[in-house]
Amino acid sequence: MLDRLLEARVERYLFRGRVVTILGARRVGKTTLVKKILDKYAAHKRTRYLNCDLQSIQTGLATLEAESLKAFIGEYDLVVLDEAQNIPEAGRMLKILADTYPEMQIIATGSSSFDLLNRTGEALTGRVYPFYLYPICLQEIVGNGGYSVLEPRLENLLRFGLYPSILDLPEEEARFELQELVSNYLYKDVLMYLGVKRSTLVSNLLRLLALQVGNEVSYPELGAQLGIDRKTVISYIDVLEQSFVVHTLSGFSRNLRKEVAKTQKIYFYDVGVRNALLQAFAPLALRTDVGALWENFCINERIKRAQYAGQSANRYFWRTYDKKEIDYLEEQDGILTGFEFKWNPNRQTKAPQEFIETYPGSSVEQVDRGNYWRFLL
Fold first, then answer.
1. Judgement on whether residues 113 and 170 belong to the same structural domain of the protein
2. Which residue of 223, 280, 292, 374 has the fewest C-beta atoms within 10 A of its own C-beta?
3. Mean pLDDT within 28-37
4. Among the listed ranges 33-42, 108-117, 270-279, 311-320, which one has the minimum average pLDDT value?
5. What is the pLDDT of residue 253?
């Protein structure tokens, strides 16, 4: 079992009088992580695990009365509420526990952010330490070793992704597991929110997004292809983003009229999921989408790297109307760092002079098959 980088960060924030939330897509390892934390503390703390997928747990935690909640949970020091988005009015319930029993540490996990944080953000303000768990990251695979452990696995990671249960499976099993994930788990929270009748529409939208990875997305065009309006497309993508299926990048613009700012690129949190949606598992040498796949993969790993290190950065892409572009930008403390992603190290790119001159102090790096470890580990 791989050690997860988030574990040590979460432990630093326990028993400070606030709820700890761990959010992330289903099957990324949240339950494994919290159970490992519980095991660590079991020798000297009273611990309890509650699975909020169970109706009996949902019913017991549905009350908004402090004494009833404590009576249901019991006298424990450390309590995990797993998949807490299933609890009615989860935010208010967590607020009551945090305010009334600050000595009892609650860890609440969730596979969707709209129930745990967005709808209840005001209620939990100042009472929560939020964390995000992603599929396995490259740093977790490498551990204390060198990146040589990645080299023989890199192509498989691009084909089948980094979900814990899929990592290093034989090809046939990996394809089967990914298909099960996409069919039975990935949309569960999305369809609970949007309605099961929209499952075909959601699947079709995701396939269209999978085909457009690395390109700017037109909401009106997606709507026309799906037979829905632009606002509905935006609302669906918003729910998919809050359920950790996809994430978006906006265009960066500050000084030039010709900079494109009002468009989006959309990426998948896991490239294996993206490939499963398209049933595209061919070896990289036979594919025409390696560039887009590599771009999605590298951006994911940059996000994981920053989150687990506790670093915050604004993220964008940059393009002008006359087609000068940078795949990915990070803005930190007012400094812009750009990245161009090329699978083939022989395809050298040059930073657009217009960008360098417009934003003094900025830099642009190429991330390719030959140097990826410098930027992703």
1. no
2. 374
3. 97
4. 108-117
5. 82
3-state secondary structure of 49: strand
Domain containing 79 equals: 6-132
Domain count of the fold of the chain? 2
Pair (121, 206) in one structural domain = no
**Residue whose entry in the numeric block shows the structure tokens 């490498």:** 142
Same domain for 232 and 93? no
pLDDT at residue 255 above 70? no
CA 265 to chain centre: 15
Asked whether the beta carbons of 89 and 3 are under 8 A apart, the reply is no
Q: Show contacts of 150-154: CB within 8 Å, 24+ apart.
A: 150/373, 154/369
Residue 166 lies in a domain: yes
The tokens 């980094």 sit on which residue? 162
Contact 45, 77 (CB under 8 A): yes
Strand-strand pairing, 216-217 and 264-268: antiparallel
Does 140 reside within a domain?
no
Residue 220 structure tokens: 């009106």
Among 42-46, 225-229, 331-335, 361-365, where is mean pLDDT lowest? 331-335
Q: Which long-range contacts (CB under 8 A, 24 or more apart) does 356-364 make?
A: 358/254, 358/255, 358/256, 359/254, 359/255, 361/335, 361/336, 362/335, 362/336, 362/337, 362/338, 363/336, 363/337, 363/338, 364/326, 364/337, 364/338, 364/339, 364/340
Whichever domain contains 27, its CATH number is 3.40.50.300
The SS3 assignment for 104 reads: coil
Could you tell me the strand order of the sheet in which 47-51 lies? Answer: 47-51, 78-82, 105-110, 19-23, 128-132
User: CA-based Rg of the chain, rounded to a whole angstrom?
Assistant: 22
Rounded mean pLDDT of 330-345?
94
The amino acid sitting at 196 is V
Helix axis angle for 271-278 and 290-308, nearest 10°, is 150
CB contact set of 203 (below 8 Å; sequence gap of 6+): 187, 277
Assigned token pair, 24: 């992330």
Distances from the Cα of 87 to the Cαs of 64, 92, 126, 284, 335, in angstroms? 11, 10, 21, 43, 42
Q: Are 28 and 135 in contact (CB under 8 A)?
A: yes
Inform me whether the pLDDT recorded for 41 exceeds 80. Answer: yes
